[in-house]
Write a structure and sequence with these properties.
Layout (H helix, E strand, L loop, with lengths): L2 E2 L8 H6 L2 H4 L1 H4 L6 H6 L1 E5 L5 H12 L3 E6 L4 H10 L4 E6 L16 E4 L4 H14 L3 E9 L2 E9 L25 H19 L9 E6 L10 E4 L3 H13 L3 E5 L23 H13 L2 E5 L14 E4 L4 H14 L2 E7 L3 E7 L8 H4 L2 H7 L21 H19 L7 E4 L7
Parallel strand pairs: 2-3, 2-5, 3-4, 5-6, 9-10, 9-12, 10-11, 12-13
Antiparallel strand pairs: 1-4, 6-7, 7-8, 13-14, 14-15
């Protein structure tokens, strides 16, 4: 039995007054060629399962400014949908509870410009591809999988006229809904890539001409009692925290001296009502209360004298090269594992430093010393400047993709395997 969810999105007039839309979207409005109206006015159809993937996509799409979403899924994650509604007061979300198993359900997708297929059974995949073919509607397909001792994900955008042979790799072998492999970290990455494809379609940009895929050996991760320090509680830190919560690495401390600002809200999704409050404290509290992470906060800059002796791994989510150099040197001196993530509006990278195996630190591998020298920076320690005075464009997708890969790299390391450095580019076919 299907029923329409009665909980249509509430409006938060107080929040809208405090956070004008032009300020909330400021960082992405700075991107050359950006068309926010195309996002605001579009209606997107989403098909999901009884897992996290559709909810993660909806949350990130809402933060990006997509205001009209119709979804068919048996269940949505209450915490993630709460965030979606708080981060975007204009979100109109219609939820039809159940599985997409018959064309009669199509009415919910009237006027949708794009269909996003995030489910794990073949009947829905075929119905959506057929609908996309007949009605000339793009279909963005993304899912995580486990098969033959491997785990990974695939994402692809179907447009009318593309070869059908390639699509067989994207149709699930399960004819009807059943238990399936799901992974919160891979879901974070898939939802980000699917949203990147959605954005490109709405703004008449280029989508990937090939399947976007990632695969590694199946992981058997031992006890997750490692102590983790996350430096930086911005967009990377937020999604990294979610990934840690979903994978059971619960002993985490989030370090950041800054407070949340209105221009953060297009990508730092857990700060929807925390403008002016500590990022580290807010992030730790929300991850603890809503997602079960045993999180602490540390309101401080990372400096040369910072004591990291009690931590097993340092996650680098900072936004400046000077601090990254200090962290690299500190981890090298104290033989600490460091996983460094960096993003810009189109791309990002994950660099893993394991003292027993890697000679080069992230700062050395990425050539940060030369970059800092060119800036004539005398001190490697950071001098704080508010985001509003550093008007670099920034968007949610690359941050969630890179954060997901950072957590997955650590899982690979803890499982006794050797992670590879990741270089993601949203303008490249295949992306990686």
């Amino acid at each position: 039995m299907y029923s329409v969810d009665d909980e249509i999105t509430p409006v938060y007039p107080v929040m809208e007054k405090k956070v004008p839309l032009e300020e909330r979207f400021d960082r992405q409005l700075r991107i050359r060629g950006w068309d926010q109206n195309a996002l605001n006015q579009a209606k997107i159809g989403v098909v999901g399962d009884d897992d996290l993937l559709a909810s993660l996509y909806i949350m990130s799409a809402a933060a990006l400014g997509i205001n009209h979403i119709a979804v068919v899924a048996p269940v949505l994650d209450k915490n993630l949908i709460k965030v979606a509604k708080r981060i975007n007061p204009r979100l109109s979300l219609v939820h039809l509870q159940g599985f997409y198993s018959h064309p009669l359900i199509d009415d919910i997708f009237n006027d949708c410009k794009i269909l996003v297929d995030l489910c794990h059974y073949g009947l829905a995949n075929k119905l959506l591809l057929e609908k996309g073919y007949k009605e000339n509607i793009p279909v963005v397909r993304g899912f995580a999988y486990e098969e033959n001792g491997k785990e990974g994900f695939r994402t692809f955008t179907y447009l009318q006229g593309r070869e059908w042979q390639e699509l067989y790799q994207l149709i699930c072998s399960n004819s009807l809904p059943r238990d399936h492999f799901d992974d919160g970290v891979l879901d974070i990455i898939v939802s980000g890539i699917a949203l990147e494809e959605t954005k490109n379609l709405l703004m008449h940009g280029k989508v990937s001409a090939s399947i976007i895929s990632y695969e590694r050996d199946k992981l058997e991760v031992p006890a997750r009692d490692q102590k983790i320090l996350v430096t930086g509680s911005g967009a990377l830190g937020v999604f990294l925290g979610l990934g840690l919560a979903y994978t059971g690495f619960h002993q985490s401390t989030f370090m950041d001296p800054d407070v949340a600002e209105t221009t953060n809200l297009n990508r730092q999704i857990l700060f929807y009502d925390a403008v002016g409050k500590s990022k580290a404290e807010t992030l730790a509290r929300r991850l603890k209360n809503s997602f079960g992470l045993k999180a602490d906060s540390w309101i401080e800059y990372f400096k040369r004298q910072t004591d990291i002796s009690s931590y097993d791994v340092i996650f680098d989510c900072v936004d400046n090269f000077e601090t990254r150099i200090v962290m690299s040197e500190k981890c090298k001196d104290e033989k600490k594992t460091m996983i460094s993530g960096g993003t810009n509006v189109d791309a990002g990278q994950v660099v893993v430093y394991h003292p027993a195996k890697n000679k080069e630190t992230p700062a050395e591998l990425l050539g940060l010393y030369d970059i800092v020298d060119e800036r004539n920076v005398d001190s490697p320690e950071r001098v704080r400047a508010s985001c509003k005075y550093r008007p670099d464009p920034s968007v949610i997708m690359t941050n969630q993709i890179i954060a997901g890969f950072m957590v997955d790299s650590y899982r690979i390391l803890v499982a006794g395997q050797e992670p590879k450095n990741i270089f993601y580019d949203s303008k490249r076919d295949g992306r990686m």
